[in-house]
Amino acid sequence: MKPLLEIENLRITFPTPAGRVEVVKGLNLSLGRERLGIVGESGSGKSMTGRAILRLIRSPGQVSADKMIFDGIDLQAQSTRQMRGLRGARMSMVMQDPKFSLNPVMTIGKQIAEAMRTHEKLPRAAVKARVHEMLEAVRINDPEHVARLYPHEVSGGMGQRIMIAMMLIPRPDLLIADEPTSALDVSVQAQVLDLIDELVTGNGMGLILISHDLNLVARYCDRILVMNAGQVVESCDAADLKNATHPYTRGLLAAIPQMHETRDTLPVLDRNAWSGT
User: Fold this and answer.
1) For 111-170, how does the pLDDT look when each residue is reduced to its tens digit (9 = 90+)?
2) Alpha-carbon distance 96 to 148, whole Å?
3) 275 burial level (CB within 10 Å; 0-12, 13-18, 19+)
4) Which of 45, 73, 176, 202 lies at 20 to 30 Å from 52 by C-alpha?
5) Cα–Cα distance for residue pair 75/49, rounded to 1 Å
6) Any alpha helices (H) in the chain, and if so which ranges?
7) Are 167 and 94 within 8 A, CB to CB?
8) Residues 6+ apart with CB under 8 A from 96
9) Quick check: 54 and 138 in contact, CB under 8 A?
10) CA distances (Å), origin 268, targets 246, 263, 273
11) Distance of CA 149 to CAs 156, 157, 166, 195, Å?
């Protein structure tokens, strides 16, 4: 079966006073209708990779790849207008702290409806029904009432679920979730991630979950890519993460606090151990 997404030799650069800096260095990625986790520290190139897939990196940033194919479509050959047709309809991205991506002067219902109307023409009654159906799918009680509210009238966890509803209502084939629960407490994080997992697997979608939390991606993903300084340093099945061999991955795993911690101090990453990777 052909992959949903194929990327070869992805490179992303930005100018600096000292010259151009490469923030993603030759990334290769193949994704089917499965759940892929991309993990690493801040600045490792995770979010840049997600944005590059949707062609959201603007000048002066530069993106190049030997191949960037989505379901048979060459993303690099698409015009700006063609990419607008793909984003949302077939590829969606939930940004970090997505509640702040909501328009503060539009009701929840109108914003979700707008996300659907952009790609699909339906009668007003059908749109309203789909909005309420999607709000119910993200476990929001009384969707008719919530649809009339403004973003400042909902909690952080509800705001996250509303953004997920907005991204999924066009029924895309690929969802990129960029640390979608970073601003939430642990109990709400689990609810939101369980919801994403349920909707992705139930609709046969592909998922790229971007996070700095190794335990989280090991729980919710099938495969994991570990990034450091713009490069993929390790690729493994999620179930095999504890057996990772690269010094950087081993260092990240060692630095995770345990529930019944017995160490006086957590280990510090030895960056010289993988210099030149």
Assistant:
1) 999 888 877 788 889 889 999 998 988 888 899 999 999 999 998 778 888 888 888 888
2) 25
3) exposed
4) 202
5) 14
6) 46-53, 80-86, 108-117, 124-137, 143-147, 156-168, 186-202, 214-220, 247-254
7) yes
8) 47, 178, 179, 180, 182, 183
9) no
10) 16, 13, 12
11) 14, 15, 15, 22
Q: Which two tokens stand for residue 165?
A: 């509803």
From residue 126, alpha-carbon distances to 26, 93, 199, 211 in Å are 45, 25, 21, 36
Element (H, E) at 9: strand 5-16
Is residue 11 a contact partner of residue 24, using CB atoms and an 8 Å limit?
yes
Which tokens belong to 263?
């160490």
For residue 30, give every residue at least 6 positions away whose Cβ sits within 8 Å of its Cβ, in sequence order, or none: 3, 5, 6, 7
Token pair of 155 as six digits: 């909690």
pLDDT at 100 over 90: no
pTM surpassing 0.70?
yes
Which helix (H) or strand (E) is 224 found in, with range?
Answer: strand 223-228
In the numeric block, the tokens 């992705």 are attached to 200
Residues 83/87/90/93 CA torsion (nearest 10 deg): 140
Round to whole Å and give the CA distance between 91 and 93. Answer: 7
